[in-house]
Model the fold of this input.
Amino acid sequence: MITWLVHVPWTVPIVVCLTLGLAPFWPEPHIWEKLKMLFDGTLTRPIDIFDFFFHGIAWLFLFAKIAVTLARVGR
Done:
């Protein structure tokens, strides 16, 4: 299913998170801003939802890599 994640080097999801996942760095990362909007209930504009998905996909990639690795270690 998602066994291709096993073959992805750890540097790829880490670099993606540090660049795309946190960009822009000033005044605060977009993902942090969008998470605050989500919990405040103000994440309603389509551009904000797209931004949340776009910056969040990097973190989902990293978390999926962690989950697959932990699942393989637990065998």
